[in-house]
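Technical note accompanying the year-one report. For the benefit of new consortium partners, we illustrate the data format agreed upon in the data management plan: each record pairs a sequence with a C-alpha cell string. No post-processing was applied to the example shown here.
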Amino acid sequence: MGDGQIIFDKNQGWVIPPPKEPAKSKEEFKKEREEKVRWLIGHGYLRSERIKDAMLKVPREDFIPPLYRDYAYLEVPLPLPGEKATISCPHSYPLFYEPLGLDKDHKFLEVGLGSGYGTALAREIVGLEGLVVSIEIDPLTFEFARKNLENLGYRDIILVKGDGGLGYPDVSPYDRICITAACIEIPPPLIEQLGIGGRLIAPVIEHGVQNLVLLEKSEKRIIKKVICEVLYIPLKGRYGVSEE
C-alpha cells in the first residue's frame, strides 16, 4: 500500500499512483484520516481503542514524500527514498498490530523503519512507560524516517541503522516484535530476543506465497498461527531473501 494514470509495478505487484504536487489542506487530511479509521473499523481491521486513537492522532501524510502526499489515505503502498522502499497501505498497520496485541507499556521492536509512520503509531500505542526500537538497513530510508519522526517530536524512540534480522539485543527481551519485510524464516536472533509470553509477527514466504504469521513464545515452545496472505518487499541482510 489517484488521480490520473495508474502505474503497475511488475516487480512488486501493486499499482502506484502518479506523482503530483500536493494540494490538500491540513483540514482535508484530518477528514480523510477520520474517514479511514471508520473504514478500518467497518471492515474489521481495527478494534483496539489504543490503536484507533493512535491512527487518529498520527498524521500519515507527514510520513510521505511530497509528490505522493495527497494519496496518503488511499489503500496503496507509496514509494519512499531508498531501494524498493515503500510505506504500506493504511490497513497494514492494524493488520499487524491487532493480532500482535500491541498495547500500553510494551517494549516493542520493529524491523523495517520505513517512513517512520508505523513507528510513530507504535510509540503512541505503548505510551510513556513503553519503549519502541526500530531498525532500518537502507541509509536513505533511515534518514527520511528519522527526519519525519524528529519533525513531529518523536525523540524518545531508539532508531538503529543496521541489519534488522540481527535485532537489537541491548534492551531485549521484547514483549512484541514486528517484521515489515518478507522472510524465508524468522531470523533466529529475533526469536531469541522475544520474551517469554511475547508475540512476533512477520510475512513469511512459504511455497512461493507470503503469509502473515504470528508467533507466540512460551517457556516450552513456539506457537505459530497463519493470519492471511500478504505482499511485502523482501527482507535484506544476513537473513534476507535472495532475489537471484
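Partners are asked to follow this layout when depositing records. The chain has one domain: 7-229.
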